Structures are given as C-alpha cells and as structure tokens.
Inverse folding.
C-alpha cells in the first residue's frame, strides 16, 4: 500500500516528526543519505511501527501515491539544493515538497519559483519546538506555493501543537518565503528572550549573591504569573540541576554558540530599516561571550566596580521582574514590527494575530503573553506597534520605574545588561516626539551635502546649507539606505 508521506533526513527532528506523523495515522516512508542511519532508526525508535525505509530517493518516490508529499529535514543551504537536484527529476506536476529546516527565506523564495516552473509545489515550513515538540506537537509555520496547502494541511495541522480549544498551532502564513521568514523572526525573539533570562541570572547570582536553589525558586515563581513561558520554566530546571552535588550550570563554559538564524534576523532588520535592537544586542552578546580567552585576559587588566547590588533583595527582585516583563513586551514589539515591514515589502499579507497563535504552544518562545498579543491584533489588525495597545501601554508604564532602577543598578555595579538597556533605550526613543536626529542631519549635510528636511516645510522637500561659505549650492542628493 502506498505511503502517505515521505521524509528525507533522519536527524533528531526528522526521526521524531516521522513518529509523530505515524501516531496520527499517516503512512510514512523515510530515507537518509547514510543507509545505516535509516536501518538504525527502523530497528530502534521506529521499531514496532508501520514506518518503512527507502534505500534511495527513487525508492522513496516510487512508494508514494500521487500527488506525492515529501518532507525534507536536512541542513539548510547547499544540502537542501543537493537533495532537490536528486529529487525533482523523479517528481511529477502537482507533487509537493516541504522544506522543514531552518532555510533562509530568500532561498525558499528561489525554490518556490524554480520548482513551480515545473508544476511542483514547494513549501518552506518553519518548525519550532525542538526534539520534544517534533515528537509530540511543534509549532509549524508553512508558506510558499499556496496550491500546496490543501494537499498538506491535514498532515501538518494534525501533528502540530494545539491551544486549549484544540486550534492547531499551524496555519498558512503566506506566499514565497513567508513561512521561513516568520520562523526566522521567532528565532530572533528567542535570542532576545534567552539573553534577558541570562542577564536576570547574572544580576541575581553576581549582583545579589543568590544560590542556585534561591534563583530557581524565583524563576519558578515568575512562571506562575504573567511571565509564564517555556523558557522561564526550563531556566528554573537548569538552575536546579546538580552534578556530583554541585550546580551543573557553574561547570558549563560561558561561551554561547549560534547557528545563524539570529544573525539573519538582524541582517533582515537592517535591510528593512527596522529597530530590532534587543535581538541585535542578544546576537552581539553571544559574540562577546565567544571571546572567552580575551575576556579572561581583560579581566586581569581592566578595572571596574565590585559587581554587587545593595538594597533589600525582595524589592530588587520585584524591580527585576518588572524589567524582564517590560523588556519582553519590547522584544515582541520589535519582532512584529519586522514582520509588518516584511509583509508590506513582499506582499505577504501576514496575519499578525494568527502568528501569535502559532507561537502560543509547541515552539520555544511559547508564553502566556502571546494570547494577549493575539487579542491586541484581533482588536486592531492595523496596530502599528504593540506598545500602542492600551493594555500593554499601561503595563509598561507601571513597570518602567522598576525597569529603570534595574538598569541603573546594573550599570552602577558594572554588570552588563545589553538586552534590558537596549529595550529601555528603544522605549524611551519611541515615546520621544523630538529626537536629536536633527543634529545628525545637520552634520551629514555639513560634511557631505546630504541635505535635510525642515519642520517649517512639507515632508519630502530637501534643503542644503552652505555651512562654510565654500561649499556652494550643489547637494549630494537625498536618499535612504
């Protein structure tokens, strides 16, 4: 009997997705470029199931009923193209190929167009949730050829995580690379959230001298309130973990890795002129952490204050909770600003409330706040900025005193808080009607004749001043890059 879906790539995510699909009644055939991996999987995790294996791509294709549906779970970049080069000649018009890896959205755009020319429907589906999510229900963000969605929706929505009312955390995002772009922004927000938690840990541990047991209790308490989220939950679990009677966390090298999706998010924000400041600082914080040898040497050369925060612990922790919550709102605000800019630039027509729902369960950034973000966009689909939603504006206003005290105390104690600081700076910039950018424009015009606009003339009119008396009337021309 033909299989319902084929899966290529048996790393952890691929293995667990195949089991997930099998659990939901789909016939699955799998293939890995290393035959031994396929056999190990069938004899191990897939033992006792009806999942079958294919020794070649051709064998996998021949085992599928048309229109064929094939899920690729291979490393992003050239490996995806290599699989497609082998796979596409074996397919027929109407077949569907889904790339479930972390591909760059522009690569997905290119593949949608290239395969579409042959009548093959290509989908770029961002999948989040790690190995546990893949096994029991991830968040899935599909986009690409819209004609593919009716052919794969029942599979993807069946295996996806569900919110309380049973709605799957999987719906069509948009054409082209929209699905992978949304997953990329998810990962950028994830970078920011993790950095915020790391800075909270640093403030507690170095600043307040708290034990790991005490810190775990604080994070667990926060997870029972408005900060409820997967990442806060597992932060408490990490802090509790011990090895040989000692906290495991203190044996882990303080040099953070990154696979590139955070940098892609920052690069996209720069290209679209969007102030994704918190995620950018999170990416750079990992880059600084990677300079371990240099930092170790610098610690013996450079001086600063003793990293201790003085005051009543309970009050300081209450301020820190305010800072974390307000910064988290800024993190999501900036992420959705980037999504809106991309949707407008590429004509994707992204449903922002729908994206918040996709992230409510299954994914790494799942959090209680996402329900309220969905409600905010539901009440006003054209909301330009989450900070302008009445509820969020009121909460940030209530939190900002503690937020400011947290950043000020950290700076005074010499404890780096790039995420909290950049989030607060963005908030203060966004709420300021007149920024010092007039001086920036004057200086640009002075040294480069780049022109400026005036407050006493309509927008779009540009002026140049001969600041030195030697420059003349010729301007460099106005442009935005």
């Amino acid at each position: 009997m033909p299989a319902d879906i084929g899966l290529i790539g048996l790393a952890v995510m691929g293995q667990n997705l195949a089991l997930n699909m099998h659990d939901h009644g789909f016939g699955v055939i799998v293939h890995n470029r290393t035959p031994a991996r396929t056999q190990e999987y069938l004899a191990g995790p897939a033992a006792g199931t009806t999942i079958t294996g294919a020794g070649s791509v051709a064998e996998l294709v021949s085992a599928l009923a048309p229109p064929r549906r094939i899920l690729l779970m291979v490393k992003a970049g050239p490996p995806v193209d290599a699989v497609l080069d082998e796979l596409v000649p074996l397919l027929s018009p109407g077949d569907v190929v889904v790339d479930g890896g972390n591909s760059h959205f522009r690569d997905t755009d290119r593949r949608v167009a290239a395969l579409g020319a042959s009548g093959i429907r290509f989908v770029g589906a961002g999948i989040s949730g790690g190995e546990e999510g893949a096994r029991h229900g991830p968040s899935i963000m599909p986009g690409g050829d819209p004609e593919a969605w009716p052919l794969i929706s029942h599979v993807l929505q069946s295996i996806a995580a569900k919110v309380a009312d049973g709605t799957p955390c999987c719906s069509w995002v948009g054409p082209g690379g929209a699905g992978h772009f949304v997953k990329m922004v998810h990962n950028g927000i994830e970078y920011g959230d993790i950095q915020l938690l790391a800075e909270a840990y640093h403030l507690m541990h170095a600043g307040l001298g708290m034990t790991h047991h005490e810190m775990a209790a604080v994070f667990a308490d926060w997870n029972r309130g408005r900060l409820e989220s997967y990442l806060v939950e597992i932060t408490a679990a990490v802090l509790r973990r011990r090895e040989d009677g000692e906290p495991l966390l203190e044996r882990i090298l303080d040099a953070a890795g990154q696979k590139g999706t955070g940098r892609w998010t920052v690069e996209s924000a720069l290209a679209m002129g969007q102030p994704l400041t918190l995620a950018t600082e999170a990416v750079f914080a990992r880059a600084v952490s990677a300079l371990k040898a240099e930092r170790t040497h610098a610690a013996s050369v450079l001086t600063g204050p003793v990293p201790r925060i003085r005051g009543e612990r309970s009050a300081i922790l209450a301020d820190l909770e305010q800072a974390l919550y307000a910064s988290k709102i800024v993190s999501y605000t900036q992420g959705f600003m980037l999504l809106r800019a991309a949707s407008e630039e590429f004509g994707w027509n992204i449903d922002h409330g729908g994206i918040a729902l996709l992230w409510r369960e299954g994914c790494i950034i799942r959090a209680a706040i996402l329900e309220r973000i969905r409600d905010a966009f539901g009440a006003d689909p054209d909301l330009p900025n989450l900070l302008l939603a009445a509820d969020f504006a009121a909460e940030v206003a209530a939190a900002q005193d503690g937020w400011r005290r947290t950043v000020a105390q950290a700076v005074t104690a010499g404890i780096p808080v790039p995420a909290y600081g950049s989030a607060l700076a963005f908030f203060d910039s966004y709420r300021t009607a007149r920024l010092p950018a007039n001086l920036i424009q004057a200086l640009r015009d002075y040294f480069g004749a780049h022109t400026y606009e005036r407050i006493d003339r309509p927008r779009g009119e540009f002026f140049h001043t001969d600041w030195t008396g030697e420059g003349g009337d010729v301007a460099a021309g106005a442009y935005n890059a």
The mean pLDDT is 95. The longest helix spans residues 313-346. The first strand starts at residue 5 and ends at 8.
